[in-house]
Design a protein that fits this description.
mainly beta; 22% strand
Length: 490
């Protein structure tokens, strides 16, 4: 539902926000019925794909996601948004829509009515409130500080007020720069840096990750020396007698954006599982290190991240993964996601994906590909198939996704062999459609699953970073050279 919101009324609804929170000059989304292409949100068979069997119904915030017939998955999935769909406020299909919804007059069964039946402006197609909005007398505005980037909001700064990032000291002059040192020098410091393998700053000596045994005891694993590889001997000693999981992946950036097991989401309504700490080991040079083995059900999340890009703002993300471990399940992602672990529509996420999922889009060949999970679509480019984004067969893959500055309608995918050579631009151009322009990123961080907690994927993750800046090609090249210096030693 969409109307022009008067600045005076919006200002009354929005309090204590910076000027970016009251940008009324852009329409956040186009009416889209909430689904992916043709209204589909999920795969045909996987219960943990988007819109799976656990995704029945929808309450007041489920804004009729799905196509005209309410189908969200394949034929084996429970419909979400069809006639007779379950929901606390009946926000399902045609049978639950008040007869007068959209006439601008608030009736007994309506939580709001702003005079139209378009989603994305606070009052959905069933006259139910959308998350992050408040409506008064038919006029809807977004709620600052609720940690949801609704409508034109470009940040969620209310949740991060009073926090001050404490990044590691800069690399000494003349010393080798790690990825986050390189991006800081490029004008876009890391706002998240996660690795169980090594420090991603030249001077970082804090914990990389935490292991937990079956009795609940924990131990932090730090680099052997600042800027170095993880002290795998400490993990081996602690976990020598009992099995361990990886309970925390610490953020090295100083923003405090640590990752823990994912909370329940719309697609998987139970929390994620922690990864087996000993399931993935590799030797880089003469250093034994452990990676993060993602299997269906394993996922990590931080829905309260600070400093990350929101709205249509710029960001750069990369991850290093194993090239031979993947599947066609949704979704082995790392990056920017919704803060409520729900599918909030096209453009509400911007995460890197590695796999061979073809539900929405694909590159050349059979995969795997590096793609962008922009929500309700994994995109190898701006059309599908995008032939310039080829299948990859490297042992270790550098996967990079970049969203340009607000208003530019421009994003980039880069890929590379993490053991040799340079990065290639697999895609560089406009967003796939008007539904993704402008973007509505929310700034949560996820690993191993998609924005709505769809976690049917497999993958091996070694490191990843996020910035709030569209990095230069020179900086990307320098990061790739650093990655090769580490993973090329295998």
């Amino acid at each position: 539902m969409r109307v022009d919101i008067a600045g005076l009324i919006a200002a009354a609804l929005v309090t204590g926000c910076g000027p970016k929170m009251v940008d009324l000059g852009t329409d956040p989304v186009k009416p889209s019925n909430g689904g992916g292409e043709n209204g589909a949100l999920g795969g045909a068979a996987s219960d943990s794909a988007k819109g799976g069997a656990n995704d029945a119904g929808g309450g007041a915030s489920d804004s009729a996601q799905g196509g005209a017939n309410g189908a969200v998955g394949g034929t084996s999935h429970t419909a979400k948004g069809g006639a007779g769909s379950l929901g606390a406020s009946g926000s399902g299909g045609a049978d639950s829509v008040p007869a007068t919804c959209g006439d601008g007059h608030l009736q007994a069964k309506e939580a709001c009515d702003d005079g139209n039946t378009h989603p994305g402006d606070g009052c959905n197609a069933n006259c139910a409130l959308e998350p992050g909005w408040a409506c008064t007398s038919g006029v809807c505005g977004w709620i600052c500080g609720d940690h949801l980037a609704a409508g034109p909001e470009q940040c969620t700064e209310g949740a991060c007020l009073g926090t001050a990032p404490a990044p590691p000291e800069p690399a000494p002059v003349g010393s080798t720069q790690a990825p986050c040192d390189i991006y800081a020098a490029d004008g876009g410091p890391c706002v998240a840096a996660h690795s169980t393998v090594r420090a991603l700053f030249a001077t970082y000596g804090g914990p990389l990750y935490q292991v937990k045994n079956v009795s609940g005891a924990t131990r932090d694993i730090s680099p052997i020396a600042p800027g170095g590889f993880a002290d795998s001997a400490a993990q081996a000693d602690f976990c020598s007698q009992v099995a361990c999981t990886i309970s925390i992946i610490y953020d090295q950036s100083g923003q405090g954006n640590h990752l823990t097991k994912a909370p329940p989401g719309a697609a998987k309504t139970t929390p994620g599982n922690e990864a087996n700490a000993g399931a993935l080991s590799t030797t880089l040079g003469d250093h034994l290190v452990y990676g993060l083995r993602i299997v269906p059900g394993v996922a990590y999340r931080n829905n309260n991240a600070c400093g990350t890009a929101t709205g249509d703002d710029a960001e750069t993300e990369y991850m290093v993964v194993a090239g031979g471990i993947y599947n066609s399940g949704c979704c082995f992602d790392y990056g920017n996601m919704e803060r409520n672990s729900r599918d909030d529509g096209e453009g509400s996420a911007e995460a890197i994906n590695f796999g061979s999922v073809t539900i929405w889009g694909k590159g050349a060949g059979l995969g795997p590909w590096v793609m962008g999970d922009l929500e309700n679509g994994l995109w190898a480019g701006n059309v599908s198939p995008y032939e310039a984004n080829g299948s990859l067969s490297f042992k270790y893959v550098t996967a990079m996704l970049k969203g340009d500055a607000a208003g530019k309608n421009h994003w980039t995918i880069k890929t590379g062999d993490a053991q040799s050579g340079t990065l290639s631009k697999a895609f560089d151009g406009p967003r796939p459609s008007a539904r993704y322009n402008p973007m509505r990123k929310q700034g949560g961080i996820g690993l191993g699953a998609s924005g709505d907690n769809s976690n049917a994927a497999v993958g091996n993750f070694f490191e990843g970073v996020m910035t709030a800046h569209y990095s230069s090609d020179a900086a990307d090249a320098a990061v790739q050279a650093n990655v090769v210096s580490v993973y090329g030693a295998d």
